[in-house]
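Margin note: ligand = pyridoxal-5'-phosphate.
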Amino acid sequence: MTYSQKSGSIKPSSTLALSARANALKAQGRAILNFTVGEPDFDTPRHIAEAGIKAINEGKTRYTTSSGTPKLREAICRKLLNDNGLAYRPEEIVVSNGAKQSLFNIFTAALNEGDEVLIPSPYWLSYPAMVKIAGGRPVFVQTRADNGFKAAAEQLEAALTPRTRAVVINTPSNPTGSVYSKQELERIAELAVKHDLLVVSDEIYEKLNFDADAPHISIASLGSEVFKQTAVVNGVSKSYAMTGWRIGYAACNAELAGIIDNIQSHCASNPNSIAQEAALAAISGPQACVDAMRAEFRRRRDYIYGRMSGMKGISVTRPRGAFYVFADVSEICARGGFEDAAAFSERLLEECGVAVVPAADFGMPGFVRFSFSLSLEEIRQGMDLLEYFIENNFQRGVQ
Ligand code: PLP
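Resulting structure:
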């Protein structure tokens, strides 16, 4: 039997492959320090979980409006206004099964066959897969460590063709932890308006933003024109440790929201009714839990960045948000005789029990992503092992 050509162009996630190997070793009794994790290691805060339980007990277990309950969409509007200065109406919000489905809906709604989408590289690996499934063509715009892995407006402009339809901005970023400044976003907004591009602004790591001099800014807040052309994507997964609940949302102009809603109504009906009640409690309830998680992630960021920036053979850029350190391991690969970052990662896992993600599938061969979603003590142990591993391999490949 043959299957679709489209499906053949979609690669499985290397993140999942590495965590699967780490889990297999764990099952064999090996102690594994897992730096591949893409979700907060905290439990969902109690008051949010209780709201889910209450929803079940109260029978809120039926279909809801496909775009999400009016109450939740109203709460999201209040959040977007208070946190981001964005004035949306409830009919401009579509709640989905995670930010992932929101992104998928947007690309499906916006792209025609062959339409190009600019994606700054390195990138979260689901963007190109989603664009391809929607019939579009991902066009990567290479960024550099010395620019904090951020795409400048001129670089994006240079990649434009008559088929360019959209640009993806992810701030704070997975996998680099970079945060775009207001000035950088203003120039991208100008470009988007000038060339009539849809801006897909993935802000899922918004609340995990560590430095007062690099605050999170939504590109949609930078003028009425870019506001109309932006689809803001956010959700509760990372901010409230709710990855398994699967609630995300898109905020955009009413016409696009209507199309997204229509698509979603046919493929998913509505996001889970119980999880919507929990998300309502998360967004409209006390925010101290978010502050506590952010403070803990900041502590870990300071520690892991401090350790890794002192190691020879690797170089790191200070992450300003999210929970990842992006490390250039090309020097240690050359010195240690590792063919590439994947070989480095495999040996680090097999020999030291430290699992990390090689970044070739994020568009950056030679780099490795370390998540710091594990305890400070585990991070300390992992850094000790990494240092030992590097020390042992530093001169190996050098003749
Ligand atoms: N966007 C980015 C950049 C992510 O890293 C992730 C998850 O890893 C998502 C979106 C998806 O979030 P959700 O779990 O809400 O679907």
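The chain is about 45% helix and 15% strand.
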